[in-house]
Task: structure prediction
Amino acid sequence: MKISILGLGYVGAVSAGCLAKEGHTVVGVDPNQTKVRLINEGKSPIIEKDIDTIIADRVANGNLKATTNIAEAIHQTEVSLICVGTPSQLNGSLDLHYVRRVCEEIAEALRNKSSYHVVVVRSTMLPGSVASTVIPTLSSIPGKSWPGFWRVYQPGVLREGTAVYDYFNPPKTVIGEVDTVRVTCWWRSTKISMLP
Ligand SMILES: NC(=O)c1ccc[n+]([C@@H]2O[C@H](COP(=O)([O-])OP(=O)(O)OC[C@H]3O[C@@H](n4cnc5c(N)ncnc54)[C@H](O)[C@@H]3O)[C@@H](O)[C@H]2O)c1
Result:
């Protein structure tokens, strides 16, 4: 599949490298030009066992690249994984402003896309956040005639230090989807099939 990874921090960089290792065509997106340049030079933007070799190998192979241009990445792919940060606030709640912002950017990019697009949230959020924040923001552009999109929530289970191992050996896979269409994901084998 063609997959865009929105956010090239810890989770995004590991997901991008491992999905590309499994043969998918991956486009990473981040506003941070240094992270984008590092990926395109075949270098890892994070320190994590094995990820530097995987990224170097996949960039050389041609199925992993990065850009700062989210619209370009969304138009080149079928699935987007939101991997932006959701930092804790002083009162213990999660700051969702990066999620909100990236959803606005996805909505803007989907204006001119005619095919279905799957949006998967990997960022950590509390239950109810897809309904209260993600879907309203994705649907927020006035006058938008949607080509259609599917929303999926797949909470991440990665531990720093063993993230590549965890990716390929997840203790469990948890996926939530809200739609009348069926979305079946086998994250473990990284097969994502969409059933009309
Ligand atoms: N670090 C972990 O081990 C871990 C494990 C499981 C889940 N998570 C969750 O995954 C999420 C990401 O964590 P992380 O540690 O990778 O965060 P991070 O802060 O390291 O990386 C987030 C990246 O998103 C980028 N970004 C911000 N706005 C963007 C936008 N509009 N478009 C594209 N990129 C954008 C930032 O520049 C940054 O590179 C968090 O919600 C975190 O709680 C983290």
About this structure: The longest strand covers residues 2-6. The pocket of nicotinamide-adenine-dinucleotide is lined by residues 6-12, 29-32, 35, 70, 83-86, 98, 101-102, 105, 122-124, 156, 158, 160 (CB under 6 Å). Helices lie at 10-21, 33-40, 51-61, 70-75, 97-110, 129-138, 163-168.
